[in-house]
Design goal:
Blueprint lengths: L7 H13 L2 H8 L3 H15 L4 E4 L2 E4 L1 H30 L2 E6 H18 L5 E6 L12 E6 L7 E14 L7 H4 L12 E4 L5 H8 L9 E5 L2 H9 L5 E4 H10 L9 E12 L5 H16 L1
Parallel strand pairs: 3-4, 3-5, 7-8
Antiparallel strand pairs: 1-2, 5-10, 6-9, 6-10
Helix pairs in contact: 1-2, 1-3, 1-4, 2-3, 5-9
């Protein structure tokens, strides 16, 4: 059974030869040899069963059949080029929806959002915040920022960005701030400590990493989310446990103090992208995030 359409490559070659009325010029435009162009035209004429060009002196011109085919091919390829351009433009304009923890969005991302939009103007970034369990496979989400430890799932492309470090912080406004200065970390075992219900093991993990007995930790006021916990610390309500990344700006400005430093948790802040998603925009965002994190 004969094919309904000839080779698209042969038709593309024919379009160039017909427009330029020259096999040599068409070969130069298409970056192929003169012989390759001639071969495609010959195969196309054999498949259609008609001559498409006549020789005129040292040149060529379209036959009536060639003129008829040129009109149809030119129109078809123009429509294809227009459609491909529209599809490409719509893909570039489609929003890149990034899901991330609300505390990370408020305390690190938003202060740097203007710079990101300036440096990655084509990304068309949209943000979705959550303080609960985040599902990187949620439909409609292009990528998700997560604190997690490897191994990574096979159905996700994961871009590690920075290790997570946590430590105790408090405000200079805290009533007992002066008494905590120049004291060993063990002094916190006597202090009712602010904590968050979204990460109840944070103080225990810090105590273990700091060589302290986690059983002696005294939990004080609790808060539902990390964002509220940090606001409480900034207000001078007590000592909180926090990721270094989320308090870096407050430490630099002197709004919070961290005299005992920070310890690694084994988690990585990473950009999680479903493997089925296009990766170019995600890689660009991951590189930007890594650079911004290193600069802090």
């Amino acid at each position: 059974m004969a094919r309904e359409f000839p080779s698209l490559n042969a038709l593309r070659v024919f379009e160039s030869v017909a427009e330029l009325e020259s096999v040599s010029q068409a070969a130069a435009r298409l970056h192929v040899t003169h012989g390759a162009v001639s071969r495609q035209i010959r195969l196309l004429e054999q498949e259609l069963g008609v001559a498409l060009f006549d020789k005129v002196g040292r040149g060529i011109r379209l036959t009536p059949a060639g003129q008829h085919l040129q009109s149809a091919v030119k129109d078809a390829f123009e429509r294809l080029r227009l459609a491909c351009g529209e599809v490409r433009a719509s893909e570039l304009a489609a929003p890149f929806l990034l899901a991330c923890p609300g505390s990370l969005l408020a305390r690190w991302f938003i202060p740097r959002l203007d710079r990101l939009n300036t440096e990655l103007p084509a990304l068309n970034l949209h943000l979705s915040a959550s303080e609960g369990e985040m599902d990187p496979r949620r439909p409609g989400v292009s990528a998700t920022l997560l604190f997690a430890a490897p191994p990574w799932p096979a159905d996700m492309q994961v871009y590690p960005l920075a290790e997570e470090r946590i430590g105790p912080v408090f405000s200079p406004r805290f009533a007992r701030a002066a008494g905590l200065h120049n004291q060993p970390a063990a002094v916190l075992l006597q202090e009712p400590l602010l904590h968050t219900q979204s990460r109840p093991q944070a103080w225990t993990d810090w105590a273990k990493a700091s060589g302290l007995d986690p059983a002696q930790i005294q939990q004080g006021q609790g808060f539902e989310h990390l964002y509220y916990l940090l606001e409480a610390a900034l207000s001078g309500l007590g000592v909180a446990i926090a990721p270094q990344l989320l308090v870096a700006d407050d430490l630099a400005a002197g709004r919070l103090l961290a005299p005992w430093g920070f310890v690694a948790t084994g988690n990585q802040l990473s950009l999680w992208v479903p493997a089925r998603q296009p990766q170019a925009a995600a890689r660009e965002l991951a590189e930007w995030l890594k650079g911004a994190l290193c600069a802090d």
